[in-house]
């Protein structure tokens, strides 16, 4: 799972509908978890192991089978995001593609799941074009700047990194309609 995500399944009330939240300790996702709890959902959640951030189990086939079992929906908000990588395609893009396909493979085995929402939360707040110092508070006023994103997109293209692999893979497997 994402950077050695830990799975702990606990049913608070069996009568509640259950959703799966992958990457539940992320900034945006913590708000999602709060909202889901306010609406009385039970949550199967995965969180990052702070002592082993580089270990990746996300791409192990079937590693999400247990956590999505019995759920009506999946929120996939966990993703690799490293800023100092030597080979972005191999270290970030390929694991994200494989991991997302793995999660969707687990989802496809569970008939109770009505849908999956895929989002990678840090990208929504980190590309703002300002330094992220220790004393900076990241809150609802922070969001990615479209100009910074466009510049990054051009840089990514110049590096030859293929960020459309996930979209193409999902479309080819009829798991995404574009």
From TrEMBL:
The keyword DNA-binding does not apply. Gene3D superfamilies: NAD(P)-binding Rossmann-like Domain (3.40.50.720). One of its GO terms (molecular function) is oxidoreductase activity, acting on the CH-OH group of donors, NAD or NADP as acceptor. Signal peptide: none annotated. Keywords: NADP, Oxidoreductase. PANTHER family: NAD DEPENDENT EPIMERASE/DEHYDRATASE, NAD(P)-BINDING ROSSMANN-FOLD SUPERFAMILY PROTEIN. This is NAD-dependent epimerase/dehydratase domain-containing protein. It comes from Gossypium barbadense (Sea Island cotton).
